[in-house]
Amino acid sequence: MKSTLFGTARRAVLVLTTALCTVPAYATPAFDACAAEAASQWETGYLQTGKDTWDLDAAAAIKACTAALRQSPDSPELKGWLARAHFANDDYDSAIPLFEEAAEGGHVLALAIFGDMLITGDGVPTDMERGAELLRRGADAGFALAQNSLGLSYDFGEGVPQDYDEAARWYRAAAEQGMAMAQSNLGLMYEEGLGVPRDYVAAAAWFERGVAQDDVSALVNLGKLLQDGLGQPPDLARAAELYGRAADQGDMYGQNNLGFLMENGEGLEADPAGAAELYELAAAQGMALAKHNLALLYEDGRGVERDLDRARELYREAAEGGEMRAAVNLGLLYMDGTGVSVDYAEALHWTELAAAENQPIGLNNMGHIYENGLGVEVNLATARRYYEQAASLGYDLAQDNLTRLDRPATSGGKTKTK
């Protein structure tokens, strides 16, 4: 995820839903019945009738495809569709042997889904190398889902050496077939200049294609681009509209980002109470950044009744989830005795955690701790080192503290991070 206050979807979530296999030349009524229940809209010949995994009637698909497979026990397509139906029913014990056989038969659906399962360890022991091999077979066959997933493998070095050029190439192959996930992923490559030249206009164009399909990642990523005014003038109203569309689909990034704009009245009327509700929704899905943002509201009593115990709990959960700004703020609660007894050991623990991740305010506050001997021996050399690290990251207060150390007369400064 982008390390900003807003957050964004770094990559589209893998959705194991589609196949691009061809229909056998001599399909039977039983085959057609299975396809009607278990084929996806990405498969050749099933654009209008295919379904996403979450739209399957798993029981009906299992019944139809089991009957069809009895008639044609060697059909890789039927094995792949039946495996998909069991997969949708969370019956991995039944799905995996069928995926194995269908993949062996070259069925691209099985190659893609089983390849992803092996990479993520979803129901099977993790084997990234084999997973990437299966994805490559599907990608080489022109299957968009396998191409997008292989792009992810190269993007993050999962089962293959990290290679942004290859990642962008495979994302493009899937994006050009109309896959919204891949369009969003390719847009991010252009936004970040990974495997392609940095080009915010091209990024926006690919995001727009995904937005036209109401893809949540594209909605959030284009919203963030418009929020930051990258490649075009900022458009906070449209950013809010895009985040809202993602939030309406239950996407935690859309919920958090819309909450931030709503809290601050950017692109829509300020409504801290509405922002708190959105942060709650995202926090309930485990989003550390949303927990941090909600904690700020509880600490300040904005949009919610002030509740320092709740703020401290949320900061702790967010910090444990990797949000270092929350670790800074939790350290300050203990350092200042805000809603809790002063506890320099706890303050040091949380502030040091943030500093270890090069969080500039955490580094500055560590300097304050050592300069003033808060639970540690006064050590101006250590304080200076922390201030210098924070200043090198562009934190102005740390530079002020360095200047002041040469003429010590007042206590060093520390701040809360928002």
Automatic annotation (TrEMBL):
InterPro entries: Sel1-like, Sel1_AlgK, TPR-like_helical_dom_sf. Residues 1-27 form the signal peptide. The keyword Nucleus does not apply. Keywords: Signal. It comes from Devosia crocina. The keyword Signal applies. Pfam families: Sel1, TPR_19. This is TPR repeat.
